[in-house]
Amino acid sequence: MGPEDDSQSYEINKGNVNISNHYFGGHFRWTEAAGDEPKTTEEAQERIDKLYESGVPFFSKEMIRFAFEQCQRKPPRGEMLYTKDITGAMVEFESQTGDVKKENEEDGDEVEYILLDPVLSYDCRAHLKHHLWWTGISEDRPPFCSLTIQHPSLKFKTKTKEPVNPWPTQPREKVSQIFKGHCQDWRDTEVPKKLVQTLTMHTATHQITKIVGLALGAISYDYDDGPRSYIQHALLLMLGEWLRERSGKEDVKCYAQDPGYRSVDSEVLKEHGIEVINDPRAWLEIDDESIVFSVSPNVPVKEIVADIARPAVIIWERVGFEDADQEGKRSR
User: Fold this and answer.
1) Which residue range or ranges hold the SRR1-like domain (predicted)?
2) CA-to-CA distance for 232 and 294, rounded, in angstroms?
3) Which of 76, 114, 112 is nearest to 94 (CA)?
């Protein structure tokens, strides 16, 4: 269904509904016929590994910027967008902006998703290989792309056109109060003191000018993961304060990027000197004078950062199974 069918009936709802947790990918295809295709799943996985282990970057600022500039144009339905697969071959994607996708819920109710302007999506080597384990090799297989394009969506009930809000946001005043409480509780633990000692000890010879937080989670949502997101932002806030004291400058840049942020998150975090930015700006901001902080993200932060920069400080969890191959033994 195209956007011309009944999109006007949704307009009254769009301003007050959050983006759903359902993203829609399109059909990717090479702009020219690919040659020497792998015949088996094992052969395809081996090719991915060989490229990775040879040092070929799966991500670069140039490729991210190239794809993002196309998305920024807000391409209409039917327009082609371009990216590259991990071999460097050109791949095309057809915009589906405005399309309406219908699905049935578990309770039998029909819902509709309106596809919004395209955004970037990132896949690491492990994900590309895992996908092959599920799908195998076929004649019309999609290219192996570490950077793809997807459509976020808004969700509505088909009968009433009523928006379905996956994560209702809390009032700004409540979010601000809760954030201040979690910040204070966290400061009262030994963790901040130990972290400051570690940073001070190991960064004496490093030039640091900015902090970038990635996928720390929204603090405005009323859901069970809220406390973790608050604490992660409390740590980000502490990093900003430490860097200001270290540099003697008040205009230290402290960024946070997460697609889940809403206006409430931006307003509350801004009060504390944290600037919310949109994807993919964080990747483009990261350089050798950055502190990068990310914990349990659902995007391949480690792989992207390893390919695009060598930050002065990186704070994240241990490399594990999800970051490497099936055996969990190899990670760039």
Assistant:
1) 196-318
2) 8
3) 76
